[in-house]
């Protein structure tokens, strides 16, 4: 398993300390190695100094050893939740701007990550331009719309999943709140997410 690494040529003289004008520091935590490497290369080409980790534990170590300007964190890591890392990063570095990546189509959990301090969340696979737009968005300005937005069926499915999570995964309570027959809801919950 890979540990926290920095493959950028420029390394700060001390954790979190760098001269003005140096590349911004980005922590990238994802247990999907091909995606992590691809995103790391793309962000380095855009002048970020990238530190990577493949687990919650390695990400927490990075949070203590560098002072990042930005972080991109996978929501679900093999050894825990990215939400824990978001909270810890925000405690240690209040100005860090965090974007959550999620490949599980569960917007309710991603919203919880935003409440924990993430600036935004993106569905996987996210390309570097989407990540940059989310990281650098300021104030009330929204990033441009995605090239392939969710379909209406997918939005409906996401809404049902969110209410289901808010009802602590209680099918009867979710069906009552959605004014839906319990069996209909169970069929929807047993299906895979609709295509984007």
Give a structural overview.
The protein has 196 residues and is an alpha/beta fold. Helices cover 43% and strands 16% of the residues. The chain is built from eight helices and eight strands. The strands form two sheets. Strands 1-3-2-4-7-8 form a six-stranded mixed sheet, sandwiched between helices. A two-stranded antiparallel sheet has the order 5-6. α2 packs parallel to α3 and α6 packs across α7 (171-178). The radius of gyration is 18 Å and the shape is elongated. The two termini are 32 Å apart.
Question: Could you list some keywords that capture this structure?
Answer:
about 200 residues; alpha/beta; six-stranded mixed sheet; two-stranded antiparallel sheet
């Amino acid at each position: 398993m890979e540990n926290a690494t920095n493959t950028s040529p420029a390394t700060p003289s001390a954790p979190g300390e760098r001269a003005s004008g140096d590349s911004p520091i980005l922590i990238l935590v994802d247990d999907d190695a091909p995606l992590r490497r691809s995103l790391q290369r793309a962000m380095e080409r855009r002048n970020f100094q990238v530190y990577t980790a493949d687990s919650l534990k390695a990400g927490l170590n990075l949070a203590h050893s560098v002072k990042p300007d930005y972080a991109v964190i996978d929501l679900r890591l093999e050894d825990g939740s990215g939400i824990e890392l978001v909270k810890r990063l925000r405690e240690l570095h209040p100005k860090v701007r965090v974007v959550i990546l999620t490949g599980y189509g569960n917007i309710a959990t991603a919203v919880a990550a935003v409440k924990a301090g993430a600036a935004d969340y993106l569905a996987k696979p996210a390309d570097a331009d989407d990540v940059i737009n989310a990281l650098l968005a300021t104030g009330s300005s929204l990033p441009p719309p995605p090239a392939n937005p969710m379909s209406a069926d997918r939005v409906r499915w996401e809404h049902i999943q969110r209410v289901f999570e808010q009802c602590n995964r209680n099918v009867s309570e979710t069906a009552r709140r959605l004014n839906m027959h319990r069996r209909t809801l169970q069929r929807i919950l047993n299906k895979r997410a609709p295509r984007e």
